[in-house]
Amino acid sequence: MRTLCTIAHFEQFAEPQTTHNDHPASNSQTLGVNMDGEHYIVVRQAHIFTAFINRCPHLHIPLEWQAHHFLDPDTELLRCSTHGALFIPSSGECVSGPCAGDTLQSVNIQRIADTLVLEDQAST
To answer: Which of 8, 14, 67, 123 has its CA 20 to 30 A from that of 33?
Structure first.
């Protein structure tokens, strides 16, 4: 297992998302993390953390338009800044755009005390 980030780091640097009316967008926050040459998206909804490789399945490019800005303020879905594809934050499934039906590549993370760790990925 490798440390992805601490909860304190997440809380300090995660983008608290807001809607166009400046109301908090549910309880979602996102954080971009770069580690060992790979880019990740960490999503927190309430107290549940999920993580994905930060790569759109359509063009294989990072999703965010600005550091840690992944959520669309109108829909509260993850949004690709290049072509507007929308992804469900809990599953990574694309529900709109040129990659509809595809999913972001999820990564297994675990919370151990106050740290989020990447679980070792099985070789395929």
So the answer is: 123
Q: What is the value of pTM for the model shown?
A: 0.85
Residue with tokens 């929308």: 86
Q: Which of 70, 23, 81 is nearest to 44 (CA)?
A: 70
Beta-bridge partners for 79: 86
Report CA torsion sign: 28, 44, 81, 58: negative
CA distance linking residue 108 with residue 52, whole number of Å: 8
DSSP single-letter state for residue 93: B
pLDDT digits over 35-72, tens only? Answer: 989 999 999 988 899 999 999 999 899 998 788 889 88
C-alpha 96: how far from its chain's center? 17
Instruction: Show Cβ contacts of residue 113 under 8 Å, excluding neighbours closer than 6 positions.
Output: none
Asked whether residue 11 carries a pLDDT value surpassing 90, the answer given is no
Q: Please, where are the H alpha helices in the chain?
A: 7-13
Token pair 């983008």 is at which residue?
Answer: 15
